[in-house]
């Protein structure tokens, strides 16, 4: 077994990866709350627009203020990622060419400006524009943020599943041949839907948590109760939607990134009728001995579930790590999957042909020679990245992170379904179901005994409120875990099958990357502290302070 | 400027909005400090465009080809 702590390379590649991960994780603290709160505040303002009751106006302004704080703190945190592309990942940045540039440019120009225009109307326009225009601005602010997420996820999806491009050996760049294939890649659509619905969950959990704090303090009771109702409905719908879109994402991973799925499942030997691992012992710190073990110890699985998830067929074949190494099975396209040895050989042919092609062009060689090398390159370009693989173990992502992060994400997702469903059953009087739920919870001492079946969520024991508040960090852990699965699972690739990390990185001194890593760590920690401080102060002030403040 | 014109109303929205900011002042201060750190410090001193400083202008493809092919 290889010990994680002993295999950390302090070189440029690892510091660059760590820095990118740190920046992305930090950026992702703000984005989901922006997306989630945008939906909830839009709903609240719509209710105000339709009822014109001042209470709903107060509600809308209060949640918009918290949205504004989060929005302001998140501004420009994503730009640092683009700096890192240009400095730490220059080979990669050049190699991806316009494929990556186009979605990011659209995101910057259209989505960001849309977002920032309407956010100004939303905050400054209460007495300046009509109620209808203001409502439209609120929704368009949220739509702008969501649209922004779309283009970022298009860029990310392309790295996981490169489509709509051709490699140009003269410019050394991938060139876009179909914008629609890139922009509407099934991987991008699946990723977008899953990411946005999971962001709505974070927004809902946050609103419930803030409201529970008010209930615990016995203040802003009406605002808290109504906010909880709206957030719970949004949260439950979002949780089911996230489960469904997660299933779609899982199927796409099974088709184009089988190694990621094998790592998520700690599936060393695959086969037909595969069960989905509910739990197993995978040491969180060590890469398992997948070549010599048949499966992870103490494995308990749900029969057929992995085959169904991956192939929609309970008898479907799901390859494990050893199957992927061996090849010879039918892949999602119905083609025979080559072995890793064959992919490596073809990748080496592609690299050799690229070098020969460029040399031949430089030497002014015969067209026939140039074209011969070009055709070898094109025939093997699909496996270009495999040509850099010296050790097959490099193709296996770190299994413990994938395995546990996936389970944390799914486990928390299930918890949120229960959480929001229970809140709905406690706050809305749904015939039979509400009473049954209340009695059931009382019988296991999760609710206090009462003589009637009516519960007021404003009079629950304090631990209920604190449990809801504790779900905020857990929701973030679940969300970040999803990204860990997505990004750790595709290692060693920066672009799936085309470019591994050690080829993508710039020829930099590791010390300089390490220095900026710690600079970011300090900067991000301070900024996060400032944000949380401002946010908590506004929550303590409550909605009355939101009436006149801008 | 005609106070009913579209441009005036847009100007007024922003001018009045910024003038009456309370919490917004703190948020803008944080944003400006952050942007200063990001662009004037980090970008300028720590995140140069690697290819612009290491490859000849117009020779980026050759530089990347050399880098990528040497890793094989």
Describe this entry's structure for a reader.
The complex is a heterodimer of chains A (550) and B (72). Chain A has 20 helices and ten strands. Chain A is mainly alpha-helical and 550 residues long. Chain A has three domains: 13-257 and 398-488 and 490-546, no CATH class; 261-332, no CATH class; 340-392. Chain A has a two-stranded antiparallel ribbon. In chain A, strands 2-3 form a two-stranded antiparallel ribbon. In chain A, a hairpin with a 3-residue loop joins strand 9 (493-495) and strand 10 (499-500). Chain A is globular, with a radius of gyration of 26 Å. Chain A starts with a strand and ends in a 9-residue tail after the last helix. Residues 1-9 of chain A have low confidence and may be disordered. Chain B is built from four helices and no strands. Chain B is mostly helical and 72 residues long. Chain B is elongated. In chain B, 75% of the residues lie in helices and 0% in strands. Chain B starts with 5 loop residues before the first helix and ends with a helix. Chain B has one domain (6-70). The mean pLDDT of chain B is 88. Chain B has helices spanning 6-19, 23-46, 50-54, 60-70. Classes of the chains: A mainly alpha (550), B mainly alpha (72). At the A-B interface, helix 3, helix 4, helix 5, helix 6 and helix 14 of A face helix 1, helix 2, helix 3 and helix 4 of B.
């Amino acid at each position: 077994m290889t010990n994680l702590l002993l295999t950390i390379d302090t070189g440029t590649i690892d510091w660059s990866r760590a820095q990118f991960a740190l920046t992305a994780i930090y950026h992702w603290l703000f984005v989901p709350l922006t997306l989630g709160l945008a939906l909830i505040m839009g709903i609240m303002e719509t209710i105000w627009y339709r009822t014109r009751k001042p209470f709903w106006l107060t509600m809308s302004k209060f949640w918009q203020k918290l949205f504004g704080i989060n929005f302001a703190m998140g501004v420009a945190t994503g730009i640092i990622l683009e700096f890192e592309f240009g400095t730490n990942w220059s080979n990669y940045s050049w190699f991806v060419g316009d494929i990556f540039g186009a979605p990011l440019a659209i995101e910057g120009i259209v989505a960001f400006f849309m977002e920032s225009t309407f956010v100004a109307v939303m905050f400054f326009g209460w007495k300046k524009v009509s109620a209808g225009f203001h409502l439209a601005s609120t929704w368009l602010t949220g739509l702008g943020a969501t649209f922004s997420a779309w283009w970022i996820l298009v860029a990310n999806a392309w790295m996981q599943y490169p489509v709509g491009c051709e490699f140009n050996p003269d410019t050394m760049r991938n060139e876009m041949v179909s914008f629609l294939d890139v922009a509407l890649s099934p991987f991008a659509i699946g990723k977008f839907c899953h990411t946005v619905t999971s962001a709505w969950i974070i927004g809902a959990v946050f609103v419930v948590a803030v409201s529970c704090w008010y209930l615990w303090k016995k203040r802003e009771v009406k605002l808290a109760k109504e906010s909880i109702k709206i957030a719970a409905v949004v949260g439950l719908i979002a949780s089911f939607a996230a489960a469904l879109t997660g299933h779609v994402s899982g199927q796409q991973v099974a088709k184009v990134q089988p190694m990621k799925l094998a790592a998520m499942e700690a599936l060393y030997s695959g086969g037909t009728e595969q069960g989905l691992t509910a739990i197993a012992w995978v040491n969180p710190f060590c890469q398992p001995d997948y070549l010599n073990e048949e499966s992870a110890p103490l494995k308990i699985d749900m029969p057929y579930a992995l085959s169904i998830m991956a192939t929609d067929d309970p008898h479907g074949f799901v390859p494990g790590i050893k199957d992927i190494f061996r090849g010879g099975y039918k892949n999602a396209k119905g083609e025979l999957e080559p072995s890793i040895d064959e992919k490596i050989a073809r990748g080496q042919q592609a690299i050799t042909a690229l070098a020969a092609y460029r040399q031949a062009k430089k030497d002014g060689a015969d067209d026939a020679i140039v074209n011969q090398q070009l055709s070898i390159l094109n025939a093997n370009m699909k496996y270009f990245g495999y040509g850099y693989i010296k050790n097959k173990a490099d193709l296996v992502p770190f299994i413990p992170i994938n395995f546990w992060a996936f389970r944390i994400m799914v486990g928390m997702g299930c918890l949120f379904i229960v959480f929001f469903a229970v809140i709905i059953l406690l706050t809305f009087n749904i015939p039979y179901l509400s009473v049954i739920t209340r009695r059931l919870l009382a019988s296991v001492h999760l609710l206090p005994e009462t003589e009637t079946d009516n519960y007021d969520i404003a009079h629950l024991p304090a631990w209920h409120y604190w449990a809801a508040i504790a779900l905020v960090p857990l929701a973030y852990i679940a969300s970040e875990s999803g990204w860990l699965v997505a990004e750790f699972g595709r290692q060693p690739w920066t672009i799936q099958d085309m470019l591994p990390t050690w080829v993508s990185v710039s020829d930099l001194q590791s010390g300089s990357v390490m220095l900026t890593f710690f600079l970011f760590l300090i900067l991000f920690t301070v900024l996060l502290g400032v944000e949380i401080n401002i946010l908590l102060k506004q929550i303590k002030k409550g909605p009355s302070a939101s009436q006149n403040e801008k | 400027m005609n106070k009913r014109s579209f441009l005036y109303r847009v100007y007024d929205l922003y001018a009045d909005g910024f003038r009456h900011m309370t919490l917004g002042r703190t948020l803008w201060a944080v944003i400006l400090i952050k942007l200063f750190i990001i662009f004037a410090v980090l970008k300028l001193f720590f995140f140069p465009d690697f290819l612009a400083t290491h490859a000849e202008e117009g020779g980026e493809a050759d530089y990347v080809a050399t880098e990528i092919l040497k890793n094989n």
